Amino acid sequence: DEGSWGGAEDTAECFIPTAQVTMSDGSKKQIKDIDVGDKVMNINGGVNTVVATPIFNLGNNKIHGFNGKKPFVTSMHPILTKEGWKNFNPQAYKESWPEDYEKVASENADGVIHEITENDELAWKNNTDDVTYVPLKDSTVLHEDSNFKVYNLTLDGDHTFIVEGLVVHNKGEGGSWVICTELKNQGKLDAELYNVASVYFRNNLSQDILEGYWAWAISYAECMKHNKLATAWAKPWARGRAVEIAHRIDPSKYPKSSFLGKLTIWLGEPICSLIGKSIRLFKNKQLVNKRLDY
After folding, report:
1. DSSP state, 6?
2. Contact, 47 vs 157, CB < 8 A?
């Protein structure tokens, strides 16, 4: 996993460890066992890739159950309803995770996340079947210790996934290109350049390279949010890579090449691939050992 992430007063938008997530092949996996690089099913039956697996303390959250499900989701987690994204405590969500709130709220018609009530119809999805909307009923609430661990996912793609059959939103932006995504969010990387180059990143890099990159880049991008020196060091390398990739994709529109970008590609991709292969071999060894123990 990616370790425990801090939040405003340890308030979390998450799920209990044993909550079942629908994977891209229709199988189910407990959220605590999901790894970076795993593929989950999205609202359309398509595939989103896990780029981070944040773990939080429950803090002062409550855990909610409904429609025959035992409590499994925290008060602040965005849930899809027939009227858009809602949760059980939108005010706390807005105060604790303002960036996440704004990103999710922007997908609603009125730009606001409202509180779930007994009259709301929640979005449910059974594997590749169409989404069905069922009214909330039989709501229950569970109180746990503030240090109780709860889990979430950060995804690429459309940022949706299915937990216990319920359509929910992921944590954070979920861009695969995490360092450049953070630079873009800070206004230090042009959005057009980012969008052009990120197409190459998503479509042309092997899973080993991606997993090797995510293994260190996700934590580094988190550091960039609070450390100006980390941002200043990453900017020329990441921007150089973006410039070089954009140049390779469309040299007529982006005529300038980048030496730093070439260097980052020549050295960075093989190193990330080696890290990713090592991670895969380690996971395979763990799986073999589990089967031998069994």
Report:
1. P
2. yes
Q: What is the pLDDT of residues 16-54, one digit of tens each?
A: 999 999 999 999 999 999 987 889 999 989 898 888 788
Of 244, 236, 258, 225, nearest to 189 by C-alpha is 236
> Over the stretch 87-106, which tens digit does the pLDDT of each residue have?
999 999 988 887 788 888 88
Helix (H) or strand (E) run with residue 150 in it: strand 149-151
- CA dist 29 → 141, 191, 238, 274 (Å): 24, 35, 34, 27
- Entry field: residues in the chain: 294
Cα–Cα distance between 204 and 24 in angstroms, integer?
A: 20
Pairing of strands 20-22, 28-30: antiparallel
Q: Tell me the H-state helices in the chain.
A: 90-96, 98-105, 178-185, 191-204, 207-224, 228-249, 259-263, 269-293
Say which DSSP state 4 is in. B
Task: Provide the token pair at 223.
Answer: 């550091």
Q: Is 129 helix (H, G, I), strand (E, B) or coil?
A: coil
Identify the CA nearest to 191 among candidates 175, 210, 213.
175
Do 170 and 154 contact (CB within 8 A), yes or no? yes
Structure token digits, residue 35: 């790894």
Q: Is the pTM of this model over 0.85?
A: no
Q: Which two tokens stand for residue 57?
A: 């303390």
Question: Residue 86, SS3?
Answer: strand
